[in-house]
Amino acid sequence: MSFDVLQEKIIARKNPTVAGLDARIEYVPEHIRQESFFAHGESRRGAAEAVWQFNKGLIDALCDIVPAVKPQAAYYENLGWEGMALLEHTIQYARKKGMYVIADIKRGDIGTTAAAYSEGWLGKTKIGGTSCAAFDADCVTINGYMGFDAVRPFLETCKAEDKALFALVKTSNPSSGDLQDRTLDGRTVYETMGALVEQWGAGTEGKYGYTRCGAVVGATYPEELEKLRAQLPHTFFLVPGYGAQGGTAQDVRRAFHEKGHGAIVNSSRGIMCAWQKTGKNGLDFQEAARAAAIAMRDDIGAYVAFEE
Amino acid sequence: MSFDVLQEKIIARKNPTVAGLDARIEYVPEHIRQESFFAHGESRRGAAEAVWQFNKGLIDALCDIVPAVKPQAAYYENLGWEGMALLEHTIQYARKKGMYVIADIKRGDIGTTAAAYSEGWLGKTKIGGTSCAAFDADCVTINGYMGFDAVRPFLETCKAEDKALFALVKTSNPSSGDLQDRTLDGRTVYETMGALVEQWGAGTEGKYGYTRCGAVVGATYPEELEKLRAQLPHTFFLVPGYGAQGGTAQDVRRAFHEKGHGAIVNSSRGIMCAWQKTGKNGLDFQEAARAAAIAMRDDIGAYVAFEE
């Protein structure tokens, strides 16, 4: 779904945040892990089943207060095909519960390959005379290093299926400057990438003024975030780096436009692993995640308006 | 396995090429497709089973003359988890047949996420007290836009498991210049990325002098290829763009060092879809692929030495 749908879900819940579902098996509470290992062994199947129970519990606990989830593909791929089946089930369960699903896949490839990725993650694959969905998320993250060839097929699927994407611009990690901060024809690589993103999306604006081609901009570089917000007026931002990585509400407020539109802030471990800080061995993982999500909502909400 | 193993396989077969396994269901000959659709329906399972028979047949036909295969993840992901199971089986079958497997995944993410990707594709995932392999390829492609944070975990797995990777530098597609050709502190983005790749790999050189951190450099930009070959003496090159995309043997010869070392050239449709040009409805898909692979070997081999 386009960013209109995401923006509406944010306004309805007065909460511009997304919960990462990046479940390493170590993040799953002991009682769930043990039950699954008992039934399926310490195997990929055992891990996938445990994470499934954990993800379902998190989605149930969060779906009325958090507008979106962001499963990170890496933590499913490292469980092989059993992990990929788990990822499909997780995406479908979250959508059924009314959440907007951003599949964090950061794919980047060209032509027919990019088309195959966009079929797999947002659209449908033609098989003989029928068309089959695979992961069927609402939105994906992509990497535009290869240029517009890598973006166009995704954008076409987005238009056909009313969906959207986020391309990497300025990422939140310590070494993001290795390439992104280099100066290029008088401006940085990340600014150049930002300008490309704004240009690639042009013509796909929805009712809030944002195109279907959003940008990933980290909370950990607040000055760069502020500069990009000013340079990219029609680009919706996905903002990682809040919480564990060091970004604060004061930092992420710079991602939003005056009316509180145009951005969503991610937290993964802060919500998912909240149970590790309550001393109850994870039996309270749902309550702990919900409390952490509410605290994050209120922390960021203090600086953001929620006008229609 | 490090690039030593790949270089040895190239020398043994006197063939510096890799066959792409990018099987869209349309590329599978009719008789295989029909049999699978009859058994499993026009479904993801039906498609995955057909591609599995096709891939096995291609690997059987190529394994004594072609040193490596490169399955492109997109064409498996668009069949959902059934496609990912097919990809696992394909990788394991090719390795069992003595081929070097480059999983073309172009992943790029940071810290623990990159670690999870490298567990999933090259290493093992810890599950309780055991460790489980998932896709277990010999080598992967990655995207270094996010900087060294995105590369380090892969390199660590490569050292532990004696494997290797290729990072995108100058890609073969028409719009690769959108970002890669921009000028940056006096040199282009792709040269800067190339220098980072050479630097990231430093200290991991094998007996042929190449590090574990190779580079993807397209055949379709031969001048850039020649320049990068000179600038990156310790970097092994994966060269896409030969054949269907327009790169010739005259172009790709520039990727090799004097002794014929340091590069491998990919062909996907040229080998996989060779049966479409013989007028035999795909019943000869193995012979056609083998003949195309031999023709490619001889075409490129005319310009490349195979010294030990």
Structural description of this entry:
The structure is a homodimer of 308-residue chains. Chain A has 308 residues and is of the alpha/beta class. In chain A, 44% of the residues lie in helices and 17% in strands. Chain A is built from 13 helices and 12 strands. Chain A has an 8-stranded parallel barrel, surrounded by 8 helices. In chain A, β11, α11 (249-252) and β12 (263-267) form a beta-alpha-beta unit. The mean pLDDT of chain A is 96. Chains A and B meet through α3, α4, α5, α6 and β4 of A and α3, α4, α5, α6 and β4 of B.
Mean pLDDT of chain A: 96
Taking all Cα atoms into account, the compactness measure Rg of chain A is 19 Å
Fraction of helical residues of chain A: 40-55%
* Element-by-element helix/strand order of chain A: HEHHEHHEHEEEHEHEEHEHEHEHH
Determine the N-to-C terminus distance of chain A: 18 Å
DSSP helix count of chain A? 13
Physical arrangement of strands within the biggest beta sheet of chain A: 1-2-3-6-7-10-11-12
**Largest interface, by Cβ-Cβ below 8 angstroms: which chains and how many residues each?**
A-B, 75 and 75 residues
Biggest sheet architecture of chain A: 8 strands, parallel, barrel
Tell how many strands the DSSP assignment of chain A holds: 12
Shape of chain A: globular
What structural class do helix, strand and pairing data of chain A support? Answer: alpha/beta
Low-confidence stretches of chain A: none
Which assembly state applies to the chains in this document?
A: homodimer
Q: What is the percentage of strand-forming residues of chain A?
A: 15-25%
